[in-house]
Amino acid sequence: MHRAKKPGLIVSLIPLTVLIFLLVLNVIIFKDDATGGANQIALLTTAFITALIGIFHLKVPYHFIEERIIKSITTSLSALIILFVVGTLIGIWILCGTVPAMIYFGLKLINPSIFLPVACVICSIVSVSTGSSWSTSGTVGIALIGIGETLGLPSGAVAGAVISGAYFGDKMSPLSDTTNLAPAVAGVNLFDHIRHMLYTSGPAIIISIIAFTILGFTYQTQSLNTETVDLMLATIDSNFDISIWLFIPPVVVLFLVRKKVPALPAITIGVFIGILTALIFQRDMMTTLLGGNTDIKSFYTLITKVTYEGFVIDSGDETINSLLNRGGMSGMLSTVWLIFSAMVFGGTLDATGMLERVSRSILKLVRGTGSLIGATLGSCIVLNATASDQYLAIVVPGKMFSKAFDKYGLDRRNLSRALEDSGTVTSVLIPWNSGGAYNSATLGVPTLTYLPYCFFNILSPVISLFLATMNWTIIKKIEESNEEVTEE
After folding, report:
1. Whole-prediction pTM value?
2. Which one, of 205, 388, 421, 233, lies nearest residue 320 by Cα?
3. How far apart are CA 78 and CA 20, in angstroms?
4. CA 328, 331, 86: angle at the middle one, nearest 5?
């Protein structure tokens, strides 16, 4: 026995209570900057408190706690490496024009008669290409809000379309931090996780687009003022050589994914294809960034800096700058730090038996697959409402329920999908959550005003629960033959 005492429920809840208190305090003090370091410190502080309780109250040897922490961190190393490469991919795909091209052609889709569904589709495209729902709503979203007001559309409906599209794209993008975080916590391959989410996110976004189409026809729109959109299109066109060939990098990556190439080599190949694309199609832009230099050393220096610092350009348009100036390995450091800190916290909870005790109390209510996934979905929503942070709403339930999914013979892809179906998308629906506060302030629309129109965010956990209850699209593991089956 590694510990002389088994923790009681009250003792086991102390770390979670302390963590929630610190996270709420961080939101009050640091607001949107809480995820930049304050929440990581909260996790490490709570891990230290948990270790103290384990050592002095539960008599758990320190070396055992340390072993579990190292084991917990080790399980996330693959995801951490992928995140660094994803940071490189973001910067390179902006440099080669792939991301600007996606934004450019997305904005071209705007049509006054079907503005709401088109706005949702545009934000989906931009969010998939950038991997960030926040960047999408904070850039293209702001432009769409302005256009929607010109058309006489309710701001809540436009904001709902923007947020629905942005979060769908975020969930489906291998560049997204939450899309990397959920499978990392659950111990699942990134692309397997994305494919499995299509069963819930696909129907949710289709229903949402239909709903926005119907809703759009109920409003009488005015003539479209395209000044904002035209300015963005002209800015992108003047800085990048936009063509259909810029879609080669994502097409190659999608092909590799379809061939079931592992995430790390597929993304790495995407980086090198992006570099080659940049050298072929964006030489003029790169020369401008280099102050007119065209020697090999200068091009090598620029490409290398973009891989670790991210892409930086002064396009003359602040909206375009804020959307494109990002990426690089350094841009992923705060997310990597968050995962590292979360794994330390999870390791101490696991070593002291507190995680098992809390999970056991919740699992007493579980009677099968539906209720297990329902408990996971509900825990994510509760943590979004209490911890006010979508990352923690993914990490904590992920650590709590992982063994329960193993116990019920369920593949952990079901867990990673549930974490995103609830933890990622519901944060924006809570006014005091960092997601809700950010989008409300950025779009200039109160959370409770846009909430009824966030069809995708509302439908995702509902569809996820429905499929679990019906035992549809649930992947089960057959230990004897090491095969997996999907219940359709």
Report:
1. 0.71
2. 233
3. 28
4. 55
Span 239-265, mean pLDDT?
85
Question: Which helix (H) or strand (E) is 484 found in, with range?
Answer: strand 483-487
Cα–Cα distance, 456 to 270 (Å, whole number): 29
Instruction: Give the pLDDT confidence of 388-428 residue by residue, as tens digits.
Output: 678 878 988 898 888 889 988 999 999 999 999 999 999 89
Alpha carbons 54 and 356: distance in angstroms, whole number:
14
3-class DSSP state of 478: strand
Q: What dihedral do alpha carbons 384, 9, 413, 19 form, nearest 10°?
A: 40
| Per-residue model confidence (pLDDT) at position 482 | 46
- The DSSP symbol for 477 reads E
* DSSP state string for 385-450: HHT--HHHHHHHHHHHHHHHHHHTTB-THHHHHHIIIIIITTGGGSTTSHHHHHHHHHHT--HHHH
> Could you tell me if 306 and 82 are in contact, meaning their C-beta atoms sit under 8 angstroms apart?
no
Averaged pLDDT score across all residues of the chain:
86
The maximal CA–CA distance of the chain, rounded, in angstroms, is 74
Name the more confident of 228 and 464. Answer: 464
